[in-house]
Amino acid sequence: MKLIAQVSTGETQTSPGLGSQDQLSLKQGAHVSVLEISDEDGAFYLFSFDAAGRCLGDSWHRTLDEAMRQAQFQFGVPPAAWSQGGPQD
Fold first, then answer.
1. For 49-76, b where at least 16 C-beta lie within 10 A, e where not — what string?
2. Is pTM beyond 0.90 here?
3. Segment Disordered: which positions (predicted)?
4. What whole-number distance in Å separates Cα of residue 33 and Cα of residue 61?
5. What is the pLDDT of residues 20-66, one digit of tens each?
6. Which residue from 2, 35, 39, 54 has the least number of CB within 10 angstroms?
7. Considering the domain boundaries, does residue 69 fall inside one?
């Protein structure tokens, strides 16, 4: 499963995440354009990408709900903004 969401400019939250492992750490000066949630080995990864498609960071989550809550907290992306991504790996 892969979910994709667009990030509005200026929505990045830099305060600590919802849990100690949840904060998506980003490269200095990064401008996140796209988020992706992928499931791997029973966990969920929240990836951030810039407009050129370069991966800027990721975070690990136990559940899809946790990953979506982190995306909403850190980037202002609500659950309704997610759509199915590319083919399953």
1. bbeeeeebeebebeebebbbbbbbbbbe
2. no
3. 1-23
4. 21
5. 344 555 655 568 999 999 999 999 999 999 999 999 999 999 999 99
6. 54
7. yes
